[in-house]
Amino acid sequence: MSFEMTTLGEFATVQGGYAYKSQDFKSTGEWSVLKIKNVRNGHVSYDDTTFVSTEVATATSKWTTKPGDILISMTGSGPSAPESLVGRAARVWKGEKSALINQRVGRLILKESSNIDLDFLFYLLSLKESQDFLVSNSTGSANQVNISAKTIESVPCPKIDHDASTDITSILLSLDGKIRLLRETNTTLEAIAQALFKSWFVDFDPVRAKQQGLEPEGMDAETAELFPDSFEKSELGLLPKGWRASTLDGISTVGIGKTPPRKEQHWFSENPNDVRWVSIRDMGISGAYISTTNEFLTAESIERFNVRVVPDNTVMLSFKMTIGRVAISDGEMTTNEAIAHFKLDRQVPLSTEFIYLHLRQFDYSTLSSTSSIADAVNSKTVKSIPILIPAPKILVVFQDQVSVIFQKIKIIEQQIKTLATLRDTLLPRLISGQLRLPDAEALIEETTA
What we know:
Layout: E1 5-7, E2 12-16, E3 31-34, E4 42-43, E5 50-52, H1 54-59, E6 70-73, E7 75-77, E8 89-91, E9 100-101, E10 105-110, H2 118-126, H3 128-136, E11 139-140, E12 144-146, H4 149-153, E13 156-158, H5 162-201, H6 205-211, H7 221-224, E14 231-234, E15 237-240, E16 244-247, H8 248-251, E17 252-256, E18 268-269, E19 275-278, H9 280-285, E20 289-290, E21 295-297, H10 299-304, E22 315-318, E23 326-329, E24 334-335, E25 339-344, H11 352-361, H12 373-376, H13 379-383, E26 386-389, H14 392-432, H15 437-448
Parallel strand pairs: 3-9, 4-8, 19-24, 20-23
Antiparallel strand pairs: 1-13, 2-10, 3-5, 6-8, 6-10, 7-12, 11-12, 14-15, 16-26, 17-25, 18-21, 19-21, 22-23, 22-25
Helix pairs in contact: 5-11, 5-14, 14-15
């Protein structure tokens, strides 16, 4: 039985963020300021934030976040843009640091008279129907649109009491909690692989140790013997003796994706049986491996427009608009023209994992002599990205170690996908009242057993 409907505004109001001045912002500090770009789907991203002084933070403490806060982006890209749309809802999760919210970032404030779980409103705003409502009621241009507090407060909402809303959100929060723990595990695993890569192939720790007559740390004598004990000049600067420099174009076939004509919608699909089509948005919400996309291409469109197919286990890189997102394909797929992929040449000793780790730590600002990196990076620039080719025997040892780590990451990401699919399936049915709680609990037990 479905719930009676009202609007979100019956339960909460929207507090707009503070309009900090440009002179308030600093590049470092203790107090982060969350802007629109930091409000992601479901979570807050604390990467690439600006900061303000403690004095400014104290004066604007009314806009300090706390665990459980629900934030929403009030300005964003329009329906035709490749990135996430306006109206992204994010939850500040337990354990996250306090920050300040900038203008055009909204926060839900429960009314004193309301009798509802705040997290119920978070999941309400996460619904596709709610997202569609916000976009369709936005104002602005095709590339950038705005929503008002009044629009957010007018989102259709079930008329529900606190106990019923808490029962529903407890199920969804439990699934999200499991997903977050799995993602944290993968973050740790990738950090281990990245630390090893940096030590061996960026900082050259084993080579520097041997140059000083010391035993390299963290490896057996047989592995240490594989590293040289001196450096020689190259186009990349000083490299370990016997190692060489190349480019992505020199070690792989660099392919660029393609978008069929958007006005001809029959080339696109939402059918999972068609070919997955990766966007920058998809890469932004994936882990190391990408297996899920929002859109698909028909087989006819791939053939008609000669869209390159990305092979399984191939590294992809976003290089337009949002530069530097990296992921590995989990199965065959296609991409749009803002994403390049690198099909390794057979005679090259490098691995997919090596390419991934290299591109994850690469400084993309070095690709441009101007401040506008987005304008400078193109397919030619991507092909010329430098990369190191160490001695083959060292690469074999490295691959033996990181392949185990990446296999664990891939398995965990498959578990995350299963839980996320289950959550997204239950969400609209629970919010609308069409699914009884015992039935939802049974589905969870059956899926996660």
